[in-house]
Amino acid sequence: MTEKDKSLPPFVxxxxxxxxxVIGNLVLIILxxxxxxxxxx
Length: 41
What we know:
Blueprint: H1 3-6, H2 15-39
């Protein structure tokens, strides 16, 4: 395990997986708030 890998959280193996997880989470939050605002508009 290299020094770079030690800074990653334990549930991902590469930086690319971490970025995909963060961007996917952002998309889901945006979608949720869009649907929430449309429902209560």
